[in-house]
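User: Can you predict the 3D structure for this chain?
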Amino acid sequence: MAPASSSLTLTVVELIQSISVTNQANGRRSCTRILNQWKKEIIPNLSKEESLELLILIHSTVGDGGDGNSANDCLGASDDSPALVVPTLLSIINNDHDFSTEGHRETSVDILKGLFHRAFSTGRDALQGEEEGQEEMKMPPATTLIQLFHQCSQTFQNRMARCQTSNRDGFRHGTMMEPMESSEHIRLLLVELLLDLGGYCLTSSKKDGVEQDDETHSKRIIEATSNICHILAKSTFLDPYPEVQRAACTLVEILARLCPLAVRMKAPGLLVPLTGEVDGFVGGAEQSSSISKKCLFRHRHAKTRCKAVDASAAIVMCCPREDSSRNDDGHHTDGDSTPANHLSSYGSQSTSMGRILQDNLLPGWEDLLKMDPSASVQIAVLKSLGNVAGMLDWSYSPDTSEISPPPAVSNDDHTNHSHQPVITSKMDLASMVEARVLTLFLMGLSVGNATQVQSMTIQQLRNLQSGNQQNLPRDTLVTYFQPILELVLSACSQGWAPCQSKVRSLETLQVLLGIAIPLMEKDASSLVSSPPAKQPSPECVVKVVELSNAMIRSIMDCLSENILSEEKEVLEAALASCRILGSSNHGSR
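Assistant: Here is the predicted structure, written as structure tokens:
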């Protein structure tokens, strides 16, 4: 038999009184007893209807004018006002009066998770029950969830934020920045609490609908999500506990679907601890190097690196396709650029998807494809590339009137950076990003990769085909051949690059030449699918690769330079590329 609501109210009042007593020792013992009673006896026996009733009581005293996170607010309510369960537990988690112990905070989070699960579990039976005659529940479930999400986000912000503390025990001295919540297990529980609530909000908004013009609800979600993203970027992604970091990555993916506007506004800051790329960083080379070493793309656990890649893709897919700060006419088409559109109509000075991909994300993904030893991480990168590729326009048209070879890069030239590839073709930002995405796909096909990585690459490339799904997108590869070649040669010519990175770039050149040589003009007749007696239709005409003398000279200069390398692996990769080029008639010119 589930306990009655009146008895629940009495236990909450008793809990509030235990927090407020003068004798803290007696109050803590009483608090421990009541919290354990809730966790072990009350929560497991609550029905969905009773759980919803307890949560909807929030609006009885809080309303739209306050947050209700203080136990004192509950005590100050009128006698006929019900005691509020959630604000009382959040007050204990917040440790507002230096009262709660670590056990109190942990149990309180467990109670909230259990209560939310009972009320909004899979299938949302509790929500269906409201439609079947529970007229006393006047607040719609979506409104209740938004209020809960907003309240819990404030607690998350308070407990996960870093503060300056003094440490004189053990080997740590002086001051350092640590999270307010010292327990790593409670920090993980707080992230999981918001994960649960975010998922419930997302499902409820699809079922009940959160109207786009409902400014109160939208502002609450935007404010809560922005606060959470700020803490994730400044603290949680840098948490020393890997489980917290992975849960934080999953939380970003949920937030990107729930409120893409808030995520896009925080995108540059969120990507810094993930990728280690700091655009326009002014804190000095030493601090920038420290951020790069601590980023999740370089985490020691492959599972964490995979989650970081997934989170980075979710973040960039929230960004507008064009930089909103450059649209002077006020027209900004970003409705299709986000997974969830119901909260995306508000304008913001957001960095464009193309700019973030070019400056921050693609360089990090390229390093993972080249250097990461885990096939699962490389597969995660390729899946993310496929998701991004599906949102690009692929409208580049090459200008063959001016073809210039990429500038040579000396082995002693350490001024260039591998993340700033050289493209001499006349291309806009979107086309440069598309060429770089294709280059990374070709890198996934290189012989040095595991079989499952190559298979995933082929699958993602086939997804670029609008018609035939059985072949690689030859027309697309031919169209972008020149900028891809320039990118690959630029990477192969960086004398200061690590051996493994240069080998992978040379293997990418092998893949590119292996695809391009059969598509050259003299060999293209065998690729035309129409019978010789008939004129082929425009759909059957196969595009061909034009390999100019300037391109061949650039390739030979690059390979000649790498053949002189002292690294055996680089020499073998360069010779393999020479053999592929020499197998074509064009290579003998």
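The CA atoms of residues 16 and 71 lie 6 Å apart. The beta strands are 162-166, 175-179.
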